[in-house]
Amino acid sequence: MMSRATHRLHFYFPIPALLFLCSVATAAVHNTSDDPNREVVSDVHRDADANAGDDTLAPAFTSIPELTSGFQLLYAQQFSEAREKFTIWESENPDQPFGQVAVAASYLFEEFYRQGVLTSDFFLNEEKFLNGIDGKPDPGRMAQFQDALVKTRALANRRLKQNSKDTEALFALTLAAGMESDADMILRKERLEALKLLKLANQYAKQLLAIRPDANDAYVALGSANYIIGSLSGGMRFFLAFGGVHGDKRLGMQQLGKSADTGLYLRPFAKIMLALAARREKQDALAQKLLRELSEEFSTSPLFAAEYAKSMGRPVPAVMHP
User: Fold this and answer.
1) Distances (CA, A) of 31 to 15, 27, 28, 109
2) Which position among 41, 43, 236, 318 has the lowest Cβ density within 10 Å, counted as fewest Cβ atoms?
3) Which residue ranges of the chain lie beneath pLDDT 70?
């Protein structure tokens, strides 16, 4: 299992600590030669024809029935069933990093659900939103999550050595960095590691989108990073900017909206993130629209039914039709 740093910092830092954080975050992204699982792909060309390869039917960008079914189960909070679908597909496609990405997502989404992260109770509580969960995440679930990330990065980096324009690999690394950043920020409360990974996820996403602009699921990583960083205090954003870490809440919501409208596997996840952000920003009509759509699409999901009810000011469980 990949070793991890054990920094446990909080968002309310003294100024010297902020400056230290910014400098380390910058160095961590620009000097990753000692960590092959987090290496920055710097030689991806921005040519318009860069995606003229053979990845037109790549699983990360094409609706594969087994994967689609697995994600549908995941969003209905049927985690074991979803993971079984992903594991079977991964075993039949061992060279594809997206299989391990999906497995990792199943563990992270399950832990978020168990901890109440994807709820308005969490998002509207400023202390929790900025400082993470109370207590600690399930160690077994997090170990499985981390193991899937290690395997994802090994497969993706192997593919990048053969083809630096491999969009499957870049997408896998984008999601791996984005998911681990979310885990560090919210579950483990390891702020320094989370900020390093936020920036790395942004870099991978931008490289991917320069080659494959239709990879709309990648905007989940960009949008989440922009919204979370943009939600910090002005003083915090000012000092983070010295380390090249920037955030913009409005842009973040626009990027999440792009994934929510035209994403593939991550469209429902983008919707719940955008809906909860909308509730924070008092954009009630947008939140209600998105949550109603989710509750109708995943009618057996207690999560979406409850959040729709709350957005409408109704008791839980929700009445689906106003």
Assistant:
1) 24, 6, 5, 31
2) 43
3) 1-57, 317-322
pLDDT of the residue at 57: 60
Which residues 6+ apart lie within 8 Å of 223 measured at CB?
Answer: 251, 252, 253, 254, 255, 256, 257, 258, 259, 270, 273, 274
Cα-to-chain-centroid distance, residue 78: 19
Instruction: Residue 26: count other Cβ atoms within 10 Å of its Cβ.
Output: 16
- At 134, give phi and psi (nearest 5°): -80, 140
| Measured distance CA(179)–CA(107) in Å, rounded | 10
Query: One-letter amino acid identity for 210?
Result: A
Secondary structure of the chain: what % helix, strand, coil (to 5)?
Answer: 70, 0, 30
pLDDT tens digit sequence for 135-174? 999 999 999 999 999 999 999 999 999 999 999 999 999 9
Asked whether the beta carbons of 308 and 320 are under 8 A apart, the reply is yes
Render the burial of 112-124: b for 16+ CB within 10 Å, e for the rest: bbebebbbbebbe
The domain locations on the chain are 60-291
Cα distances from 102 to residues 85, 116, 125, 174, 190, in angstroms, run 10, 21, 29, 13, 23
Q: Which two tokens stand for residue 27?
A: 């160095």
> Which residue do the tokens 């995941």 mark?
74
Fold classified for 60-291: 1.25.40
Rounded CA gap, 170 and 177, in Å?
A: 11
Token representation of residue 19? 């400056």
Would you list the DSSP string of 46-98?
--TTTT-SS-TT-GGGS--HHHHHHHHHHHTT-HHHHHHHHHHHHHH-TT-HH
Q: H-helix or E-strand containing 107?
A: helix 97-115
> What integer pLDDT is reported at residue 6 of this predicted model?
41
Phi and psi torsions of 238, nearest 5°: -60, -45
